[in-house]
Amino acid sequence: MSDEQFNPENHKFAEASYFEDLSIGQKFYIPSRTLRDANFAAFQAASGDNHPIHYDVEYCKSQGHPELLAHGFQVLIQTASGAGIFPHVIGESLIAFIDQSSKFLGPVYYGDTVYPELVITALKEQRTTGVVTVRSTIHNQRRELVLEGEQRYLVRRRSAA
Length: 161
Description:
Blueprint: E1 27-29, E2 33-34, H1 37-47, H2 57-62, H3 72-76, H4 86-90, E3 94-104, E4 113-125, E5 129-140, E6 145-156
Antiparallel strand pairs: 1-4, 2-4, 3-6, 4-5, 5-6
């Protein structure tokens, strides 16, 4: 039975926020997760990285590490905005993910729980668009900052200036 009142185009997480709707300091949490076998195996399979520091516990211990060491990019991908609400908040106003940079500040090991977060730090208005800069961070369960970086997104303005 068809429901004429239902419209799939209206089935959204939220109404799109445009450049003008965003503010410096606005936070977007990404759900925490504990990195275990599945995370390590999936990253190894996707990246092709076969260095034993990422999958051989005894090798890690011989190198002075207590556990498997997560690859830096395995840690970085935890800041993927799509894992949180940011891309749902900006919705159709998102034009492009422009760039990202990051610094790896401390090790992340098998069994660590990571807490990713994005915070808007700059809004650069352009004629019909704007560039949204977010600071990306990851803390571990010991409250240590293990990654910090920056991501930039091109977002539509509600109306041209």
